[in-house]
Amino acid sequence: MWELVQGSLLTLGVRDTESRVLWTVLAAIVHLGHAGALRSANGRPQFARAASAQRASLLLGTSVEDLAKSALDSPLLTVAGNSRGPARGDGAGDPVEPLQDFVASLYQEVFNVVVSLVNRALGGSGRSVAAVQVLDCPGFQPQSGTGAGGSAAATLEELCHNYIQERLQLLFHQWTFLNQQERYDQVPFRECVAEQLLDLLT
């Protein structure tokens, strides 16, 4: 699997320095996940495993103190455009939550870099309209409401989610199966194979 990833990066023309940055940040994410977070006796958040936090800080090129300040003491947490509001300063908040938000933001940045590298490879040296767009659809949503007679009644949001998911499945079926079948029907593939088999048998 690692060879396939490396080969894909070479195909996209990703330089060694660029791929090294990706692996470094991903390694830091792994170490931050292992570091964990807890509150000390005086109520301040800190990393649960100092060794993992030290490795993550080295990979990110910062000190453990600055990393803890950014990952655990952030006054305003914003992930994927959704503001969570000011962090609680009464010592009652869970220190794991801001750490998870920090790790999620790091992963989002890595993902954005990968998409930009793919788009750069598709664009080439000249002007191009080729690009990669990622659609993360919510999938089918269960009906949460209750209508008359105890039957479940879907909300408008659930209806929209399910409609989008159904249309995407139809589009996938069209491009994956129906278009391929039409292409096979245009070429006398079966007749060619049958003639070749008859030639081999005779």
TrEMBL record:
Iron-sulfur: is it a keyword of this entry?
no
Q: Does the keyword Cell membrane apply?
A: no
Segment forming the signal sequence: none
Pfam families in the record? Myosin_head
One record GO biological process: actin filament organization
Molecular-function GO term, any one: actin filament binding
GO CC terms = cytoplasm; membrane; myosin complex
Kindly state which keywords UniProt assigns to this record, in alphabetical order. Actin-binding, ATP-binding, Motor protein, Myosin, Nucleotide-binding
Name all Myosin motor domain ranges.
1-202
Q: Which family does it belong to?
A: Belongs to the TRAFAC class myosin-kinesin ATPase superfamily. Myosin family.
Q: What is this protein called?
A: Myosin motor domain-containing protein
Per the UniProt record, the source organism is Rhipicephalus microplus (Cattle tick)
